[in-house]
Amino acid sequence: xxxxxxxxxxxxxxxxxxxxxxxxxxxxxxxxxxxxxxxxxxxxxxxxxxxxxxxxxxxxxxxxxxxxxxxxxxxxxxxxxxxxxxxxxxxxxxxxxxxxxxxxxxxxxxxxxxxxxxxxxxxxxxxxxxxxxxxxxxxxxxxxxxxxxxxxxxxxxxxxxxxxxxxxxxxxxxxxxxxxxxxxxxxxxxxxxxxxxxxxxxxxxxxxxxxxxxxxxxxxxxxxxxxxxxxxxxxxxxxxxxxxxxxxxxxxxxxxxxxxxxxxxxxxxxxxxxxxxxxxxxxxxxxxxxxxxxxxxxxxxxxxxxxxxxxxxxxxxxxxxxxxxxxxxxxxxxxxxxxxxxxxxxxxxxxxxxxxxxxxxxxxxxxxxxxxxxxxxx
Length: 378
Ligand SMILES: Cc1ncc(COP(=O)(O)O)c(C=O)c1O
Hints:
CATH topology of the largest domain: Aspartate Aminotransferase, domain 2
Oligomer: single chain
CATH superfamily of the largest domain: Type I PLP-dependent aspartate aminotransferase-like (Major domain)
Bound molecules: pyridoxal-5'-phosphate
Largest sheet: 8 strands, mixed
Mean pLDDT: 96
């Protein structure tokens, strides 16, 4: 048995392919290549699904961050906070608008932004904005972050590139994107909702901000004196995204089911799993296991790879350990301890319980074979 990390063949099944082809050939015939009817249809449906007033499609998730920073008027020399555990693009977007990234430390159990660290960092540096990241698909502790940001007049951009399908609370099912902040998404092919290439989106509740973003993504058109750029989303990508949106909730629910199987078959690893309260809340973009140290993570990764189990390290380095970013400031101790320890197991909507049992058994074998007595403690 092999358990791959992704399963594009099942995602792009025959009937999906047929529908996609019909849409693509209609677009070719209509010569409507950018910002067509599917862009508008997707923006309308996605914003309603995520309980936001406006959705603006852009070319990718990194542009979504950059354009959001510009929409918040972040300029050359401004300080912008970000958690130490994220994908490089979060920091890159800050630097590309001329601002200075400031590291905020993370919560050691999850990798999410630590509100106490945010509070300390924001007392020390005059942050213009902060980018909490819903890493792995886990909702960041927004209530606390919001309170601190509101007190200090710091604008919030939520990086939800990995979090389509995540909720802030179980009771009211408030989706990521529903708060009064800018929220950015990536629709890169591996994401929970994916284009057939690059695409991204920004959600906002504010009509003026939506108008500004609409203008920024299209050369400043419609706004005198504004320098924008080209970050339009191709019509073909929008048509694919709109088509996939119909199945998206179902697929996200399947991911939750897969996560439940993992909790059932990895009970013996309790201390390495995320707290169970995240089961109904995470988008389960990834399924992270936090190992005791980098060596253990590497050994488990190569052991599982030998058995055809797709797994990957997220992330090898914290932002403060990246060569291009070492010169920047902030709090970084927990993020640096966390980096290199997380191994993500196969996660996609099509994994069966039998496959998870197989993964669980192999992990058990690995720990039975290893001689270190304390491997199961954090
Ligand atoms: C947390 C995070 N932010 C931003 C991005 C950037 O998105 P894109 O690759 O669509 O530019 C990604 C993509 O992987 C991501 O995971």
